[in-house]
Amino acid sequence: MMIIKEYKIFLKKYKLLTFIIYFQITIFLVLFGTFIAFRQQLNYESKSLGEIYDGKAIYQLLDGYYDGEKYQDFNSQSDYLMRLKNYYTMLNTSIDFKYLAMFNHHILLEEDEEIPLKFIEGYENGSKKHQENINGALYTAVKSFQLNEQAADFFHLKVSEGAMLGKNDYSQSNDTMSVLLGSSYKSIFHIGQEVSIRYYNKIQKVKVIGFLEKNSKVFFNNHPEFYLDDYIVIPYREYGNPKLDEDELYQQINYFAMINGFVVTENDTAQTEKMFQRIDTIAKKNGIEYSFIGLNPHFLKYRSLMTTISENKILVQSIFVSIIVLNLCIISYIMVLQQKRRFSYLFVHYINGATKKKLILMQYLEVSGIYLAAYLSTFIIIDQILKLGDMRTQFILLITSIAMSIVSCVIPAYKLLRAPFVIDHEEEGGRE
User: Fold this and answer.
1) CA distance 333 to 341
2) What is the CB neighbour count within 10 angstroms for residue 104?
3) What's the chain look like in SS3?
4) Cα angle vertex 282, ends 66, 218, to 5°?
């Protein structure tokens, strides 16, 4: 009770100094928490980039039917759809390379309630919200990303809730299509929910089977980091023979999208040549025109990103180590100055029976209380406002706060132990 009473007196008497120390520690912990989150992200980026691109060569594969006449001529042939399907299947199942079919064509989502703007197709570019009334229901154009199973595996996509897409989800095993949602959709949909979309001009029922982990990404086109948090992820499915003309048109659009993708192989001359020869054989066998755009378009981005990450990591670490040392020095200096101002006050406690150890404990409780308040403020700022890091980050900040509170008291404690409190020990009963 005495310590609590003294602590209240301390706060009341030194409220301005206490606030300054509290504010400084809070700012430091927020910066340090940001640094920890940033460093974790750098480590993740470095590891994920290395796993994906180290020793790999990637080439973009396109069909040769961008000319309108060529496209019409190809589609007028009776066996064109079968050839498209065989071409894609052979690309997708080749053992000489990995074929990543990916595209970011938007879909129309049936809107039961207003959809947040960040999900709207083209929102970042200032595009207006596109909506259509279909069969009496309102549909809104939202971001969507389509991929095959090899792309999901290659980029190590994982779910935080629910289940990943399985092999059956990449075939037309049932009428309802399984989809994944980016982490931002958690506040809108739930696992197992079914909604209606219009995908390539066809109304399709889809079922939410999982939410991707936060910051899930792929390396797509000119985007070395294409984040999927705001996207509906749709599996590229393989289809049987179409029953109606509209089914044939739907499959035609799908397969033309699916045969434009990325080819991944080992980054050595022999393997690359083998890949080129294999794709040429597959194309000729199915009578498909194709072309490659760019030679390994992602490799230079990978190298530049790795260099940037490495340089940033060293720079940021150096800055924050300097800040930690400076912060500890400043707080320790403030504590020493405060102790000098309070010397007579401590002396009174001393002659009234308090030992130096008790005085040191009292000082530590005063300092640790400030650190605890600063940590709680930091927890709220990082978790609720900045939304950075995780419980591991918060735990590191807690341990850092405790360690810094101890270090901050080392010099004042040392000076207090050596303080020239002159008292007749025999008269005072041998008290230290």
Assistant:
1) 13
2) 17
3) CHHHHHHHHHHHHCHHHHHHHHHHHHHHHHHHHHHHHHHHHHHHHHHHHHHHHCCEEEEEEEECCCCHHHHHHHHCCCCHHHHHHHHHHHHHHCCCCEEEEEECCCEEEECCCCCCHHHECCHHHCCCCCEEEECCEEEEEECEEEECHHHHHHCCCCEEEECCCCHHHHECCCCCEEEEECHHHHHCCCCCCEEEEEECCEEEEEEEEEEECCCCEEEECCEEEEECCCCEEEECCECCCCCCHHHHHHHHHHHHHHCCEEEEEECCHHHHHHHHHHHHHHHHHHCCCEEEECCCCCHHHHHHHHHHHHHHHHHHHHHHHHHHHHHHHHHHHHHHHHHHHCHHHHHHHHHCCCCHHHHHHHHHHHHHHHHHHHHHHHHHHHHHHHCCCCHHHHHHHHHHHHHHHHHHCHHHHHHHHCCCCCCCCCCCCCCC
4) 65
Q: Tell me the two tokens of residue 86.
A: 């065989």
| Contact assessment for residue 167 and residue 250, using Cβ atoms and an 8 Å cutoff | no
* Nearest Cα to Cα of residue 378 among 68, 3, 25, 6: 25
Residue bearing the bigger pLDDT, 17 or 258: 258
Q: Are 126 and 87 in contact (CB under 8 A)?
A: no
Phi first, then psi: give them for residue 160, nearest 5 degrees. -90, -25
Compute CA distances 41 → 37, 45, 365, 390, whole Å: 6, 6, 35, 12
- Distance CA(289)–CA(65), nearest Å, equals 7
Query: What is the overall mean pLDDT for the chain?
Result: 83
**Cβ within 8 Å of residue 407, ≥6 positions away:** 328, 332
For the stretch 297-335, pLDDT in tens is 444 554 555 555 555 667 777 877 787 778 777 776 776
**Cβ count within 10 A of residue 109:** 24
101 forms beta bridges with: 261
What is the pTM for the complete model shown? 0.66
User: Could you identify the residue written with the tokens 């009334």?
Assistant: 133
Do the Cβ atoms of 405 and 331 come closer than 8 Å? no
Question: pLDDT per residue over 245-295, tens digit each?
Answer: 899 999 999 999 999 999 998 888 888 889 999 999 999 999 999 998 765
Q: Which residues pair with 146 in a beta bridge?
A: 103, 234
Residue 268 CA to residue 60 CA, distance in Å, equals 17
Amino acid (one-letter) located at 313: K
| pLDDT, position 96 | 92
